Each structure stands twice: as C-alpha cells, then as structure tokens.
Amino acid sequence: MARNKKELQGITQLGNKKTPYSDTYNPGLLETFINKHPGRDYWVTFDCPEFTSLCPMTGQPDFATITIRYIPDQRMVESKSLKLYLFSFRNQGDFHEDCVNMILNDLVKLMAPRYLEVLGTFNPRGGIAIIPFVNYGKPKTRYAKLAEARLNTYVFASK
C-alpha cells in the first residue's frame, strides 16, 4: 500500500541528498508521518548505538546506545529525522538522565503516542556506567497503567 502525498506532507529529510547535520540540540529536526494502522497496538523500536553528548562539567564526550520503544497513535516519527535529532546532542552538555528525559519529552510532544519509553545505556566513564530509563503512557488510558507497571517492574539486565 503506497503512501499518498498528503500522508508524507512535512517529511523533508528523507531522500534529501544534501542533509545538514546540526551540531546543536534541535528538536525542530523531528518529523512525523501518519500511522496507517491506528486501530492496532504494535511496538516500534529504534536502537541507536552511536549516541554522543557532552558531560556538562568536563566537556568530555559521553557515548551511549539509546533505545526508544513506542506504541504509536495517529503519528509516527520518521527515522532519518530521528537520527539527525539524536546527532544534534553531539555538542549538548547535559547529564545522562537529562538526555533521556529530553528525548522522551520531545517525542511525546511530537507524536502524542499511546506509550513511549527511552533507555540510555551509557558507556562507563570513571568506572561507572549510568543507565537511565524513562517512560510515558497517555493519561487516563490503559497505557498510563502500562507505563506505571513497566516502571515499577523495571530491571536492567546488564551484559
């Protein structure tokens, strides 16, 4: 089933051969498209193993794998725009916990998903790995209960 032009309206990054890479945090890079299956719950997972941000105290780079999982509602995030958005953290000086919360907040604002979670598996620096997890469920729905249950039973299984 091909997408029509109306469904793809607002997608500017995909297929653009002269992609600009923002070197400063920019949630305006995020784009969406219409979910063609809004009557069905299903998971979408993005695994981003090359995430980089800066320590706000030392300016040294922090490297992580960011895993984003969500159950879409009416809109979905376009993957190239997500890649460019995550790249825009490269020179952003924020703590690991702040980065995952910013990503969650920006994606919730963008898509209004039914459910969304972000896991940051940051590489150890100074002998400590920091692995923040944050999630969201649409208020007053069963997805809010899903978010509460997943947070309450969250266990990170280290390698």
Question: How would you characterize the overall build of this protein?
Answer:
- The protein contains three helices and six strands.
- It is an alpha+beta fold and 159 residues long.
- The chain has one domain (27-152): GTP cyclohydrolase I, C-terminal domain/NADPH-dependent 7-cyano-7-deazaguanine reductase, N-terminal domain (GTP Cyclohydrolase I, domain 2, 2-Layer Sandwich).
- A four-stranded antiparallel sheet has the order 2-3-5-6.
Tag the structure with descriptive keywords.
3 helices; 6 strands; alpha+beta; 159 residues; two-stranded antiparallel sheet; GTP Cyclohydrolase I, domain 2
Would you spell out the secondary-structure blueprint of this structure?
Blueprint: E1 32-34, E2 44-54, E3 61-71, E4 75-77, H1 79-87, H2 96-111, E5 115-122, E6 133-137, H3 142-152
Antiparallel strand pairs: 1-4, 2-3, 3-5, 5-6
> What is the CATH topology descriptor?
GTP Cyclohydrolase I, domain 2
Structural class: alpha+beta
The largest β sheet comes out as:
4 strands, antiparallel
What spatial form do the alpha-carbon principal axes imply? flat
